[in-house]
Amino acid sequence: MAQEQKQPRKASEVDESVETAPESDVAERKEALDSDIDDILDEIDDVLETNAEDFVKSFIQKGGE
Amino acid sequence: MSVRRVMGTEVEYGIAVQGQPLANPMVASSQVVNAYASATLKARRARWDFEEESPLRDARGFDMSRQVADPSQLTDEDMGLANVILTNGARLYVDHAHPEYSTPEVTTPLDVVRWEKAGELVMLDASRRAGQLPNGAPIVLYKNNTDNKGASYGAHENYLMRRSTPFGDIVRHLTPFFVSRQVFCGAGRMGIGQDGRTHAYQISQRADFFEVEVGLETTLKRPIINTRDEPHADPEKYRRLHVIIGDANLSEVASYLKVGTTSLVLAMIEDRFLTTDLTVEGPVAGLRAISHDPTLRQTVTLTDGRELTGIQLQLEYLDLARKYVEDRYGADADPQTVDVLERWESVLDRLERDPMLCARELDWVAKLKLIEQYRQRDGLAWDDAKLQLIDYQYSDIRPEKGLYHRLAAGGRMDRLLDDAAIETAMHEPPEDTRAYFRGRCLEQYAAHVAAASWDSVIFDLPGRESLQRVPTIDPLRGSKAHVGELLDRSETAEELFTALTR
């Protein structure tokens, strides 16, 4: 996940610091989040069955229980 | 009681022979079970003992006649299908057209997760071995509940309950709970309707397959509350509540919460703690409506007139459970009971704010998140086959292919157990139930165990003409504390049997 800056702060300041996070931090975080999404989708692209339509058609089960 | 009780699960796996969509699933399932049996079982293979099975016994107090029963309900007839008992006390077998694994009896929600997860590894090992047979094609197993073309197969839970609890109380208090617990233990499904004709996402794999409120069937007209009553224990003291409404979970947290919260609600019913009536008008329709709305805003109407969402209905149970545990145990509540309550509250709270906050813990959210990400990146329409593929492949049990497994391997799913603990449970039984006795007998004396079941181990002893049956009717006897030392010092089955019957 995003690498957050860890600076020593008093407990009482923590809430405030989250609320007033500068714009650039938010943008940075969103960028990190987007790249995280890309990473996972790239990884899953590599393992997904290649022909989705054929696979879906052929996945037929009998009832059970 | 608390979250602790004698319980276990049974999971039927979807099965596919790669490159052969028309392969006979019964044959393939038998190959899976037999491949595991041949590779792992020593000496002879113990049969399943059907003597105590009574699948047509109804909890409402009558037996269905065999003539009117659907053939699929006659599960006690040994049809020669593969069926083995493992050294961890579990049962691996073929049920209709699916390989199935029943956990050994355990006493805590975390142990349910542990031995159910061990079952996934058993199935993985079994399917790989079956694929290596001469002329064998690769077989892939799926821990899901529907093919999205009209067929469904189960993931059942079993809870031992006091016989003295009126069945009507169970129906009254458990139905609203079952209608709503899917908000955290649904496995997610791409497709609405039994055959998936509407291309939309829903919370539960199973909701669309339930048609009545109470009944004995499991394969047709499925009921929210199943009345099968085979306690596999003293029927004067116990009933076994057979729960068929759940989804098969991959997520450890979802699985743990499913069993833990249900056990806790059953404890409140047994102790007559529930006096609030949360009865839902039209529970079957309500079950489906809640499942069909992943935004979780759908409400159901209670008979007292209130309109509650699935989360709000769960919050009612959570509130009662907190009061119950405080009232009965106070600060002495056991750690798992406390943990279940905390996680239950935390998950409901976050679901209410934004379901995506639970993507690391809940199957239906993790799956929906993937689907949404694909839609966003590739601009896919809801009817795109790729989204359906993601649904199926989420439940592929192969670690290199299954999407749940890829998420977990990347640290994107929260875990409760480490891999080593689960691998150990593939072979070792739980120590605090009769499964310990069963498992160790199979481990030590396989050549002389002719058959076994939940409530017996049958020995074939050298020099004795007839088979010797050791009943294990009490699920809490036969534990390590009871028989561990005896098993340690009995080198042969004969020694063990002599000591037991002295």
UniProtKB/TrEMBL annotation, chain A:
InterPro entries: Ubiquitin-like_Pup. Residues 1-34 are annotated as: Disordered. The keyword Metal-binding does not apply. Signal peptide: none annotated. Residues 1-13 have a biased composition (Basic and acidic residues). There is a cross-link at residue 65 (Isoglutamyl lysine isopeptide (Glu-Lys) (interchain with K-? in acceptor proteins)). Keywords: Isopeptide bond, Ubl conjugation pathway. Pathway: Protein degradation; proteasomal Pup-dependent pathway. Protein modifier that is covalently attached to lysine residues of substrate proteins, thereby targeting them for proteasomal degradation. The tagging system is termed pupylation. Belongs to the prokaryotic ubiquitin-like protein family. The N-terminal unstructured half of Pup provides a signal required to initiate unfolding and degradation by the proteasome but is not needed for pupylation, while the C-terminal helical half of Pup interacts with ARC to target proteins to the proteasome. HAMAP family: Pup. Strongly interacts with the proteasome-associated ATPase ARC through a hydrophobic interface; the interacting region of Pup lies in its C-terminal half. There is one Pup binding site per ARC hexamer ring. This is Prokaryotic ubiquitin-like protein Pup. It comes from Nocardioides mangrovi. The lineage of its organism: Bacteria, Bacillati, Actinomycetota, Actinomycetes, Propionibacteriales. The gene is pup.
